């Protein structure tokens, strides 16, 4: 059983071979194999407790021939070109970005990346823009927080997903999510405006964050007016 967050991640992964980095309980890769989303997987864990959790879970499931559990930091245990698809979930965006940057420096650049950071995903969207990846899917999953789940794929040139959108708002809230304009996204942006308004004295970081949330709200409201106009 996966929670809504990891179900959403799972829905964005299909590959012959996939590596899950920082897997802990190994719930995601086990379900990926069981449901036929992947044929084989690699599980990477940095810390001994979670590494043992993953090893035991794979052994209990009898899937040791399809899931290879490796100790190591980020993408270090992977050889260049070894896996076409990688997931990183449940970590901070800056930690994930560091892992991806160190991997790219060793030429470990999977074709597809699915990431679910626990905080502001903007550093990952910015990294992808400079690293030759385009956003192919974005989802929001409800849970303790509202979790963003992003799928990037390697592609040349500028990412067209950002065309015509306010720059900072698109990096913070997601270009595809802004176009989708779901109730969950509107709720998240409204909550940010409410939370940041009392903190946003001029010159403080919260003032920039508030301006970004307000820009997203203005764009979403503009879309609603356009939709209403089209229906009349
Ligand atoms: C909060 S848990 C998330 C577990 C699972 N991915 C999920 O989303 O439910 C983060 C896991 O990442 C592992 N981790 C942290 N930094 C790592 C790194 N640089 N390389 C590999 N694993 C790492 C931790 O040991 C921990 O098991």
UniProtKB/TrEMBL annotation:
<dbReference type="InterPro" id="IPR006901">
    <property type="entry name" value="TrmK"/>
</dbReference>
<protein>
    <submittedName>
        <fullName>tRNA (Adenine(22)-N(1))-methyltransferase TrmK</fullName>
    </submittedName>
</protein>
<dbReference type="Pfam" id="PF04816">
    <property type="entry name" value="TrmK"/>
</dbReference>
<dbReference type="InterPro" id="IPR029063">
    <property type="entry name" value="SAM-dependent_MTases_sf"/>
</dbReference>
């Amino acid at each position: 059983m996966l929670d809504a967050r990891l179900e959403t991640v799972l829905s964005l992964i299909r590959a012959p071979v996939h590596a899950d980095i920082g897997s802990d309980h190994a719930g995601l890769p086990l379900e990926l194999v069981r449901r036929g989303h992947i044929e084989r997987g690699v599980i990477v864990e940095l810390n001994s407790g979670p590494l043992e959790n993953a090893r035991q879970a794979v052994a209990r499931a009898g899937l040791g021939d399809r899931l290879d559990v490796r100790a190591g930091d980020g993408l270090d245990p992977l050889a260049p070109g070894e896996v076409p698809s990688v997931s990183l979930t449940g970590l901070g965006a800056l930690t994930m970005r560091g892992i991806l940057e160190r991997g790219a420096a060793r030429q470990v650049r999977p074709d597809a990346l699915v990431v679910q950071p626990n905080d502001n995903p903007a550093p990952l969207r910015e990294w992808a823009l400079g690293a030759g990846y385009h956003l192919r899917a974005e989802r929001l999953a409800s849970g303790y927080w509202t979790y963003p789940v992003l799928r990037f794929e390697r592609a040349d040139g500028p990412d067209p997903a950002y065309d015509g959108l306010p720059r900072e708002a698109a990096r913070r809230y997601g270009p595809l999510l802004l176009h989708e304009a779901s109730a969950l996204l509107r709720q998240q942006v409204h909550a940010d405006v409410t939370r940041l308004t009392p903190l946003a004295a001029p010159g403080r970081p919260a003032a920039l964050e508030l301006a970004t949330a307000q820009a997203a709200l203005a764009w979403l409201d503009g879309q609603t007016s356009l939709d209403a106009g089209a229906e009349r």
